[in-house]
Here is the input.
Amino acid sequence: MTHGLLLFAHGARDPAWAIPFEQARAQLQAQHGPGVPVALAFLEFMSPTLMEAGDQLAAQGCKRITVVPLFLGAGGHVRKDLPALMAQMQQQHPRITWHLAPAVGETRTVVNALADAAWQLAQAGLDASSAQPTDGGAA
Here is the structure.
């Protein structure tokens, strides 16, 4: 039974916004190889949509697909919109077992990473500001 992974992000008008998500998808694919198909989908503004990516994984022979919301928290999109989309996918592909994972931002791993990154950025800002002359450089 092929298990696929479908990463689900919000989407944005700026294509650069998707770069970290595309990097996460590529990293997962490299780590797990072709035996674990990994797709990235977006709620709005970008493609593919969740339905399109689900169709792609189904066409690759996946019998079980886990949808992982790449959201920092489980707001309305994760609590309301995503379950409705999952029901549509279940209807369209009834032979596939669909599983909805929690939002990644609610995992201890991501919470710790956020705290660590915030601290590192704050320290870098302090280090940079301490290297600046406080009197504007006037002698």
